[in-house]
Amino acid sequence: MRELTSNHHTFSEPLDNERRLLDPVTPRGRSEFRAIRPRVSVVTPAYNEALIIQSHLALLCDYMRSLESQYDWEILVVNDGSRDGSGHLADQFAQVQPKVRVVHHRINQGLGQALRTAFEEARGDYIVVMDLDLSYSPDHIERLLDRIYSTGAGMVVASPYMPGGSIDNVPWFRKELSIWANRFLSFASKRSLATLTGMVRVYDAEFVRMLHLRSRGMDINPEIIHKSMLLLAQIEEIPGHLHWLKSLEAPAPRGKKPKKRGSSMKILRHTLDVLFSGFLFRPGFFFVLPAVILFGISLYANIWFLIHCGTELPGAGGDPTVAVAHAFQRAPHTITIGGITLMLSIQLLSLGVLSSQSKSYFEELFSLGSATYRRAGDRRRSTR
After folding, report:
1. CATH number reported for the structural domain that contains residue 140 in this entry
2. Enclosing H/E stretch for 203
């Protein structure tokens, strides 16, 4: 479903067969690149970005030229089925910029598929993902690369929610939605990171390719974090500065309103994706917490029932069955609720145990599959 437009650019450095992933959870370290410039692929997914695509690609190219003493680089544009001429404009730009390549999806397939395509096509040792609207300024690229280069981490995330980060000019509703989505995911992941939905990151290329990603939408970003955590990979964060630029407007015929460059984010679907991602991080918690709440309600109702059975016992001539019948007649709804909530709490607790067990099995299988993939890759490289 995609076709590649390439201007046959190749990196100036030769491919080093010795540069490889040393461990499934420990990507390449700084010492491996002492004698050469690391190769960097800057990835920019694009969907209906005709108003900004050439000007913002020019800004990225100018910035990457300032880093040429440190890194060899390319810019890879993934045109995800744009219908406004973005793909054609990107191709025009690539014809005069030898370090820009364009990959086209014939139809829109979502951010997740765009990133998966980029990870396959990128030629760099490191892959930097940038939003084409440059809501994160290009200077994040150098700071991301410096951190991953110095630490040997599997990825580094630009985080506007960690100390030192900031958010500007973002609509209130979307800002609050993003803040609470990341708080929720941070809690679900045991507060290991401040930002899990952000797209602006740098990856060790070999590491991210071995994650076997499946998401096609915006949930790919939490998926990458989740699978990296399963492999106990090192994940770093740097303070990010998210600043939405003024919305651009396209020329419109006389008498019609200008068409603004819109966001492709689907709020409801994104919210559901966030909830599901949180469930994947800690499935047992989402069953155990309701089970505890329901058990508390059941405990209150059943204790009330037992107390009233005791008070009815003398009037029932010491017959406990009569005392129970009298207590039930006085408050049938309370007793019914107590029984139902007790059964539900037991069932939810059982589901929590089963989901935690399933998560443990998945982690084992994923780790085993990743290790097998790594060994197969090592064998292929050794036979070249």
Report:
1. 3.90.550.10
2. strand 201-204
Rounded CA separation 304/115 (Å) = 57
One-letter amino acid of 267: I
Q: Please give the average per-residue pLDDT across 130-140, as a whole number.
A: 95
Spell out the alpha helix ranges (H) of 231-331.
267-281, 283-312, 320-330
Q: Are residues 151 and 295 in the same domain?
A: no
Distance CA 162, CA 165 (A): 6
Tell me which residue range forms the domain holding 85. Answer: 2-246+259-280
Total count of domains within the chain: 2
pLDDT tens-place string over residues 232-275 = 899 999 999 999 876 554 444 455 554 544 444 466 677 777 77
Helices assigned H by DSSP within the chain: 53-65, 86-96, 111-121, 140-151, 172-188, 205-209, 220-230, 267-281, 283-312, 320-330, 332-382
Instruction: Give the pairing of strands 126-129 and 201-204.
Output: antiparallel
Q: Per the structure block, which two tokens stand in for 88?
A: 């054609």
The C-alpha atoms of residue 90 and residue 302 are separated, in whole angstroms, by 68
Amino acid identity at 315: G
Tell whether 310 and 236 lie within a shared domain: no
- Coil/strand/helix, residue 328: helix
Distances (CA, A) of 29 to 32, 67, 206, 235, 331: 6, 20, 12, 14, 69
Asked, for residue 162, whether it belongs to a domain, the answer is yes
pLDDT one-digit tens code per residue, 33-57? 445 789 999 999 999 999 999 999 9
